[in-house]
Amino acid sequence: MSDVLRVEGLSISFGGLKALDDLSFSVADTEVFGLIGPNGAGKTTVFNCITQFYRPDAGAVWFAPGAERLDRAGHHGSDAIDLVGEPVHRVIRYGLVRTFQNVEIIPELSVLDNVLIGGHVDFKASMLSQMLRLPGARKEEAQYREKAREALSFLSIDHLADQIAGGQPYGVRKRLEMARTLMAEPRLIILDEPAAGLNESETEQLADTIRQIRDRFGCSVLLVEHDMGLVMNVCDRICAISFGKFLALGTPEEIQRDVRVHEAYLGERDDD
Ligand SMILES: Nc1ncnc2c1ncn2[C@@H]1O[C@H](COP(=O)(O)OP(=O)(O)O)[C@@H](O)[C@H]1O
Ligand SMILES: [Mg+2]
Hints:
The chain has helices spanning 43-50, 88-93, 111-118, 127-132, 135-154, 170-182, 200-217, 228-234, 252-257, 259-266, and strands at residues 3-14, 17-28, 32-36, 58-63, 81-82, 96-98, 188-192, 220-225, 237-242, 245-250. By secondary structure, it is α/β, with parallel strands linked by helices. Strand 1 and strand 2 (17-28) form a beta hairpin. The two termini are 38 Å apart. Magnesium ion is lined by residues 43-44, 101.
């Protein structure tokens, strides 16, 4: 087994607060990996440090975009990249895509158009040729629309393609956001609390969808969750963190039994 992502010694502070403190973990090729912790543990901050929305104070984020993966002996391989310091648009082009904790859509656009804007990263035709409607650009646009429809169909919302995105129920907007990630031909998809706001049956469907995406696209998934239900159901391995520090790593069964994890969740503040 080899890794697609390796986080090494990640640290970041906000003012006096150490949001992440020397955190390390690895996500294996085609693995569904869960990152859990109580509210305020630093999960979203890990996310933002990986995708370079935040620049960590210390540490590395090794990512293997090509066929070659990071091997466990600590060799990073010739195509591995330390994402720290890379611009966000390049991170996406490497095949690392994310969804947001709050669904980000353009409400005035159709469901299909919202998916289309997500895949702009490999839209080769220039703006000029699009404006001039050159044959190459038209062909590319058609292929592109086809790909977006496939992504919608994969998430079972293709029948809503031409409807306005704004009025759709929350569950549909979540699916729309996931369809958008598929447009970027992901190596690694990072999902921040995808089950938040979903009911029990929607959460079960989401678990199926995550597995299907992994199987069909051969990518890895990093799932950031506060809620234990989904991670226990869908993850191969789980890393628990608390106050920005590593707490435990193991299979869902091992994490469920772990006393340190229970204590961390018990100590959670009620006002969150
Ligand atoms: N941009 C920021 N500025 C200041 N503090 C932040 C910022 N982002 C996160 N934090 C703080 O870092 C800690 C971890 O937050 P976060 O990563 O959002 O936790 P989680 O996603 O696990 O609930 C919290 O104490 C939070 O207030
Ligand atoms: Mg969060």
